[in-house]
Write a structure and sequence with these properties.
Length: 200
C-alpha cells in the first residue's frame, strides 16, 4: 500500500500520461472498488468497474485534487455508473446465465485453495454488509472498504459528513451486534446475492 502523500504525486504523474502511475492507481483502488460495486450491482460489478475506469481515463487530465479527492472522484463515477446500470437493467428482461458446462470449460487464472478461502470470506463480509439498510450499507462500504473520509464519502452520496458518519456508525454497530449474537456462526449463507437493487 502506498503512502497518501506519495500517491498524490502518482495522481499527478498519471494525469501527465505516465502509464506506470496509472497502473499504480488502478492496482491500489480496483480491488476495493470492485467490492463496493459488487454490493451495489451484484455480478455486473466488473463491467461497471470497466466503464468507470474508461471514464476516469478519459477525464483524468481535467481532474484536480489530491489522492483522497481522486478516490472520492472514482467512487462518485462508479456509483453513478452503477445506478445507471441498475436503471437500465430494471427496464430489460433478465439475461440467460452461462450454463454449468460452459463454466466448467473456462480455465482458471489461478486455482489455489487460498484464493477460494479469501473469496468466500470477502463474499461473506460483503453479504453481511448487504443486509444493512441501503444508506448504512453504502456508508460502511465507502468508509471501511474504499477507505474514504467522511467528507469525501458525503460528497459521493450527496449528503452531509455528519449524516455519513452516523449511518456508518449505525451500520457498524448493527454488524457488531449480529456477529455477537452468533447469528452468523459459520459465515453468511444466502441463496442469492443481495444488492442495493434488492433492498429498495
Amino acid at each position: 500500500m502506498w503512502r497518501v502523500d506519495a500517491m498524490a504525486e502518482v495522481v499527478e504523474r498519471a494525469q501527465r500520461g505516465d502509464p506506470e502511475a496509472f497502473r499504480a492507481l488502478y492496482r491500489d483502488i480496483q480491488p476495493r472498488l470492485l467490492r463496493y460495486l459488487h454490493t451495489l450491482a451484484g455480478q455486473d460489478a466488473e463491467d461497471i468497474a470497466a466503464e468507470t475506469w474508461l471514464q476516469i481515463t478519459r477525464d483524468l487530465p481535467a481532474f484536480s485534487g489530491d489522492y483522497d479527492h481522486f478516490r472520492g472522484w472514482t467512487a462518485t463515477i462508479a456509483r453513478h455508473r452503477a445506478l445507471d446500470h441498475l436503471r437500465r437493467t430494471s427496464r430489460r428482461p433478465p439475461q440467460v446465465s452461462a450454463t454449468a458446462e460452459d463454466l466448467a470449460s473456462w480455465p482458471a487464472a489461478d486455482d489455489t485453495a487460498q484464493h477460494a478461502i479469501d473469496a468466500v470470506a470477502t463474499d461473506a463480509a460483503l453479504a453481511l454488509i448487504g443486509t444493512l439498510p441501503p444508506d448504512q450499507a453504502e456508508a460502511v462500504l465507502l468508509r471501511a472498504v474504499l477507505g474514504l473520509d467522511a467528507k469525501t464519502a458525503a460528497h459521493v452520496l450527496g449528503k452531509r459528513p455528519g449524516a455519513v458518519r452516523t449511518a456508518a456508525h449505525r451500520g457498524l454497530r448493527t454488524l457488531a451486534r449480529q456477529l455477537e449474537t452468533g447469528r452468523l456462526r459459520a459465515g453468511v449463507t444466502r441463496t442469492r446475492d443481495l444488492t442495493l437493487r434488492d433492498m429498495r
